[in-house]
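mind reviewing both lines:
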Amino acid sequence: MILSAGAFSDPKVVEASGQLTPIFVDCDWGKKNADISGRYRVRGYPTVIFTSPEGREIGRLEDRDAASVARQIEGVAKNFKPAPPPGPGGLPVSPPPPEPLRTVGMVSRSIKKTIDPWEHQEPGGWYRMKVTAQEKERYIDLGLKSRGEAQSTLLSQEWTGERLEPVKEIPSKPANIKVIGEETLQVQSRSFRCEVRCSLDEVGNVKTDDREWVIKDGRYAGARLKKESPKLTVVAGKVWDHTLKVKGREFDCLVVEVQWKSGDQTREVKTWHCSDLPNPLRIETDETSTIIVDFGSDWSKRPPFPGGGSSPPK
């Protein structure tokens, strides 16, 4: 497909595009500029992505007919909110005070899906998490041993700070969910197109009282902004972009700060979501901090745990 043809040569699209700065990146079907296509998780060509001047993704072209393309470009130009300037020393500034999470629109759908957070991970791949609680540190390695159609097998090993636990095999079944609609949520003046998902019981019946709102696409696809169930309510109050570096590699994250409420208990939880990882890169609560500090592609070649004395068993 040639982008200059079809809708992109329509006068309305050309006029609307004057509000943006178009940049063409030649990826040659993945053979060129792999760093850019990888960063933005491009899965097909052509892909049209809307970004801020700093490179933060704010949307993707959803339709190809001229009227829809012009309308989406107009919407991006009208609703774009520049990111705040960095604070002293280049550190990210604190996010502004929270605004209520708002619903912009709802589109009904009915699609069954299977969600497997390890689907893009090759067997042997692993991640090391440092867990800090009450000024004590422990480390947990989690990796993928094998993948099957109905179930995968994970490997887990923990260094408690005092002893090295044996490696455990953990069965991991993909989650079966049903998408019942799409909804655009606004958090702090930022709009996110979300899937509204319901979980299924053991026989496949839809649990309509257990719903979650998950970002549908873009660089932060899969991040949860809202959840409602009989025992738990989770609502995002703040979101901001933050890049974290692990072993010299940068991971672009969406930090989602939510209010978690169960019965009479309420607490704040911050999650650093990155679509490149099977688990959040970082989770912070008042009591516990969990962060990925190492990773690799071969479980048998993991380095020793910090303070663990010897290499982990293979």
